[in-house]
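User: quick one - fold this with adenosine-5-diphosphoribose bound?
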Amino acid sequence: MNFYSHTPIICKSSQVTIIGAGKVGSTLAQRLAEKDLTDVVLFDIVEGLPQGIALDLMEAQGLELHNCKVKGTNDYADTVGSNIIIITAGIARKPGMTRDDLLKTNAKIVTHAAQKALEYSPNAILIVITNPLDVMTYLAWKTTGIDSRRVMGMAGVLDSARLQTFIAMELNLPPSDIHTMVLGGHGDLMLPLPRYCTVSGMPITELMSESTIERLIERTRQGGAEIVKLLKTGSAYFAPSSSACLMVEMILKQQPRLLTAAAYLQGEYGLNDLFLGVPCRLGCQGVENVFEVNLTQAEKATLNASAQSVQENIKIALASLKE
Ligand code: APR
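Assistant: Sure. Structure tokens for the protein plus adenosine-5-diphosphoribose:
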């Protein structure tokens, strides 16, 4: 009698912890497992929620044909030995709410989560998704004191993917032909760079009118809000989880690509002591390199305004942690 199975049951050598088993966290757990990338520990404060999602995902394992374990927990001890910790915990944006409205509540949640998770995985790389993103990433780093290269925020991949989609829709071309670059804060002051956006090597400035580009840029800036408005409860989670999944994949597989992440700046772009979206090389060490691209005066002014807004919110958030 011949026994053969599609894939051997093996344990993955990597483990990723996702803190917050809400829409983004659970979809990310699904993507990581179903891409066969890594074992996942899903943590939440709500009892039963991460366990239920993990069990549901495991019950699909034989159908999706992956070999990753997903475990749900309310105990940080179960996250021990993780290679990457991803923080999605917090309150999601509601209609009419800006990202900055979330500042104080999420500051407490994110700093506590980062500290607790690193207690059990002291060598982990930290990816922050909770909004307001650039501020939360700074707090996670500042309150844990780990090497800044091991901390990054997920925003640039998402913002660039949104612009890529809008250009693809406008030109009726596949997104895979389109490369986009969006720098700056994950907010209304983000800095899409049309000069660095190309379609199969051709700058979009050659293919679209200025007013069309401006319309697509504005839609990208409002990309999160557009979805909040449509959903009415909650915010985007499919594209955010895809973006985080790509970052995890690059780190775990050690297949670096140049992409935008919120990275700690120490003089790059003339900015200091903040996390902001810049082109990076991500690898197993975390943010291995920050690339500086030439900016026009107007672009520099937008980046500076974005940085100033982030820094003001960092001050408010740090003060709120002492209240
Ligand atoms: N520790 C762990 N989990 C927590 C904590 C905490 N202290 N506080 C809240 N949570 C959990 C909630 O129980 C919930 O399951 O965080 C989860 C958040 O999930 P959702 O409300 O579904 O939010 P989601 O859409 O996943 O967005 C999460 O990502 O894109 C950002 O703006 C978004 O900041 C938000 C985050």
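One thing worth noting: The longest strand covers residues 272-283.
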